[in-house]
Amino acid sequence: MVYQIYPRSFQDSTGSGEGDLGGITSRLDYLWRLGIDVIWLSPVYASPMIDNGYDISNYEEINPLFGTMDDFLELLESAHRKGIKILMDLVVNHTSDKHPWFIESRSSRDNPKSDWYIWKDAYNGGPPNAMGSVFSGSAWQYDEARGQYYLHFFAIQQPDLNWDNPEVRHAVYSMMKRWFDRGVDGFRMDVINMISKFPGAVTADGGNGAPMCNGPMAHEYIREMNREVLSHYDIMTVGETPGVTTEEARKYAASDGSELNMVFQFEHMDLDNGGLGKWTPGRCRLTDLKTVLGKWQTELYGAAWNSLYWNNHDQSRVVSRFGDDSNENARVRSAKMLAACLHLMQGTPYIYQGEELGMTNAPLMSLSDCRDVEIFNAWRELVEEKKLLSPEQFMDAVRKRGRDNARTPMQWDSSVNGGFSSGTPWIGVNPNFTTINAASQADDPGSVFAFYQKLIRLRKTYPVIVHGDYEPLFESDERVFAYRRRYEGVALLVMCNFSGTPVSDPDFSGLNLSTGRLLLTNYSEREITDTKLLPWETRALLFQ
Ligand code: TEU
Fold first, then answer.
1. Residue 309 located in a structural domain
2. Which is catalytic among the residues 55, 160, 185, 240?
3. What is the chain's percent helix, strand, coil content, to nearest 5?
4. If 17 and its partner were Cys, which of 6, 99, 423, 532 is the partner (CB 3.0–4.6 Å)?
5. pTM for the complete prediction?
6. Within 6 Å (CB) of ligand 1, which residues are found?
7. Are 343 and 386 within one domain?
8. What are 424-439's pLDDT values in tens digits?
């Protein structure tokens, strides 16, 4: 069980309005009570914070915003004393433009680091080719100092490293080893399948560019990292791999340990995209969601390992996206149903801070409520420059899919700022902190928090949850997500109603529900029946 912390928004311990390492340490008891095993810490390294730490200017200094290296080591030691491991976030597809490596690289065309980034001459007086950035606009930025363009798949201030240069690779490996020698327990690896560039992406030919992901040397470089670093430590790794297929994932996350332990795939997170991607959001069909998640269950089974997630710091809150946050009853029920649907599958579940409380998207009413570089860049391109969306249409998309929905402060209690900070938070606290907060749930057996605790206990109790296979049921139904897991003569049946209305039309009688042992429900036993699923109901039954 991995719990992701976005440090800037988790707990402020100094009154600065910014979350920090001391704040995280102060909340370890809460995480221990939840029952998680591992913390994935989003970046806390030195950074100008253009992309909230995913633009690193020194891989081995702690950002003073979050504290000191001693604060980090205190957190690490305190977590280890509670049996909790810590993964750091490895962001090595790119650095900050303020990193000394880039400052040297841009200083001339023949310094020792001139080939540590991807520099190209102009083509016909403009960018080398038509590669676009994930954060809008061109992926090429002209640099006056050097008289060339450099590649940035993300923000202008995030120049891509040249992984084809062995000096770059070995500098990264050395840094990784020093973090492992400090005692960290592994890495989440940011866009690690982007580190190898297709020739068409980096050729100054005025061409259309090439895909960003799964380039020709991606596996070779990760296998080299494994040989040189990962295989020498008892650690855990998870690669963030946008655009990954199950075929590629069977290599990135191969059970033979040659690359990484698992990867984050994105297919289920893009199903509700429209013509302009997340900026024209729709509502995905349940049959599409079932097909995608079922495919990842069956096509990795026995060959590679799944990660399981609905949320992270880049995705909007799942209860608002796939559930119903319009009233308290529906919010609590659907949050629990979504948790059960995901956590009872095969793979390692990831809980994003606040997901265990059923935290919702935020009322981001205007750009002034936002902080995310991705939002600001998309506004400039889609609203101001290309006029493809009106301000209202764009802000509606931000409220549905903007990354800042996940970055409002953790809601600890109903006191000022939800107990996150005694200062002015760097981003507004969701006003619903008065009713949705940890303090109101920690001792409530009917809370979303208690339901996550129970799910975590179930995973540690029943091997079928960890090792079972996956059989989809009622695949064509647009409201019921049901599947069966089997392992060593034990079967687990999981039923989920992804709608706010009762469902009785799939014929459940063939499942002999009454003969199963009820492990979990988000209703009471006396409310549920064998012939229908109640609104947002989830039910898990064991047959042995
Ligand atoms: O995200 C990579 C990525 O694909 C994101 O662009 C994400 O899918 C998108 O923002 C969703 O709208 C990683 C980090 O998780 C993200 O926070 C960083 O901004 C990005 O890389 C650059 O480091």
1. yes
2. 240
3. 35, 15, 50
4. 423
5. 0.98
6. 51, 54, 91, 134, 154, 190-191, 240, 242, 278, 313-314, 374, 403
7. yes
8. 999 999 999 999 999 9
